Structures are given as structure tokens and as C-alpha cells.
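Whiteboard transcription, Tuesday session. T.W. wrote the C-alpha cells on the left side:
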């Protein structure tokens, strides 16, 4: 856990499971808004830059797996708001993104507009979820876990740069 004090703002990054939080970020965001209405945009940019660490790793892993995962890779994007950093997946051009990341049941009858077909065999086999002890994803949550420390360093660096500019 990193702690650093600058002026009147104290922030601590905390990590719990697949979540990384910054203690005092909401108060910091509100303070930025009172100083200048443009500063929350700067915070959003900092969030997006930090999220790119995870998005880049997820894209690389998806590309390396080939098949439908590689086709999904371009849909993995860093995004942000002033309140948080995030990584998005899928979209209208990538309706198969969740199946590519989480897998799907094979050889199960399903109905389509073309008639009945057997399974979602174009995806990797669904390996279960956290409750069943299975593998819950192919690349997205893997990237969050693998890049947690690097993300936290990047996020701290981005916040330091923003504070220095202020």
C-alpha cells in the first residue's frame, strides 16, 4: 500500500481482488472541480492513461491466442471518467466478444434465425466461474491481475503529474 502526502491531499491506493481503489479520490475530484472546471477532464485523462496499461496487456494476450479472441482484441479499449478508470470490451461490431473472453457451452442445442444449431463451438469451452472454481476468462481479468502493480504505479505517476501541474 502506497501513501503519499502533497499539500492538503492524502491518497492511498488499495488493491482488493480485481478492484483497485484510491482512498480520497472522490474528495480530490470535487476539490479539482472547485478550483477549475477543466481539471476533472485532466483527471479523466490520467485515469484513461493508467487504464491503457491493462487494456494493452489484454489486447496482446487476446491476439496471441488466435481465433475469435484475436478478432476481439481490437475491441479492448481503455476508457475513463473522472471517478474511475475502466477497460471496455465488445460493441456492435464485436457481438462475440464476451464469448471470446469467457468461453461458452459446447454442443448445446440453441435456436437462431437460420434454425436450430448445436452449441457455441466457435468459442473456447466455458471453464466455469469463480463460484465453481473454474477459469473465468481468457484475457481481460487475466490482464487486470497480471498488471495490477504496473497499473497502480502508472496511476500514482499520473496523479502525481496532475498534482504537480496544479
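and on the right, the sequence the group agreed on:
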Amino acid at each position: 500500500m502506497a501513501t503519499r502526502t502533497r499539500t492538503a491531499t492524502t491518497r492511498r491506493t488499495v488493491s482488493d481482488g480485481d478492484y483497485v481503489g484510491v482512498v480520497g479520490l472522490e474528495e480530490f475530484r470535487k476539490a479539482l472541480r472547485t478550483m477549475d472546471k477543466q481539471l476533472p477532464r485532466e483527471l479523466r485523462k490520467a485515469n484513461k492513461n493508467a487504464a491503457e496499461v491493462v487494456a494493452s496487456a489484454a489486447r496482446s494476450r487476446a491476439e496471441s491466442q488466435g481465433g475469435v479472441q484475436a478478432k476481439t482484441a481490437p475491441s479492448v479499449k481503455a476508457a475513463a471518467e473522472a471517478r474511475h478508470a475502466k477497460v471496455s470490451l465488445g460493441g456492435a461490431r464485436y457481438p462475440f466478444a464476451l464469448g471470446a473472453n469467457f468461453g461458452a457451452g459446447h454442443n448445446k442445442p440453441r435456436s437462431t434465425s437460420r434454425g436450430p444449431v448445436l452449441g457455441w463451438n466457435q468459442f473456447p469451452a466455458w471453464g466455469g466461474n469463480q463460484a465453481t472454481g473454474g477459469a473465468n476468462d481468457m484475457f481481460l481479468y487475466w490482464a487486470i491481475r497480471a498488471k495490477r502493480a504496473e497499473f497502480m504505479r502508472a496511476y500514482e505517476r499520473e496523479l502525481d503529474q496532475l498534482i504537480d501541474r496544479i
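Someone added at the bottom: The longest helix spans residues 39-65.
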